[in-house]
Amino acid sequence: MSQLDDIDLALIGSAALVAAGTFAMIANYRFEQTLADRNDPFTNIVDLYRKYRDQTHAHQGRVDPLLRGHCAAVDVFTISGIVYVILRFD
User: Fold this and answer.
1) CB atoms within 10 A of CB 54
2) How far is the C-alpha of 52 from the C-alpha of 41, rounded, in Å?
3) Residue 90 lies in a domain
4) Is 47 within the bounds of a domain?
5) Are 67 and 16 in contact (CB under 8 A)?
6) Per-residue model confidence as pLDDT tens digits over 32-83
7) Is 22 contained in some domain?
């Protein structure tokens, strides 16, 4: 493994952990508020995000930083994966 592999593995791994952790907190909040059903096998993820954004915006007057952090982590994960593939296999 080269240094590029090590750096990108660390970046993708940390972004995936942050994204998964923040998603778990968002989903848990929705379930605790009984705004989503835990037993629904076909939960619409986009709807879950949209309702979370709307509810926190209504209560706080702004979009929750947890959702912004989740979106940023997903962006870092995606972009670093694309850049890695381009640099590694070019």
Assistant:
1) 11
2) 19
3) no
4) yes
5) no
6) 877 777 777 777 788 888 888 888 888 888 888 888 999 999 999 999 999 9
7) yes
Query: Is 88:5 a contact under the CB 8 Å cutoff?
Result: yes
How many domains is the chain built from? 1
Sign of CA dihedral 24, 27, 29, 32: negative
CA distance 30 to 76: 25
CA 77/CA 37 separation, integer angstroms? 28
Output DSSP code: residue 34: T
User: What is the residue-wise DSSP string for 46-89?
Assistant: HHHHHHHHHHHHHHHSS--HHHHHHHHHHHHHHHHHHHHHHHH-
Q: What is the pTM of this model?
A: 0.80
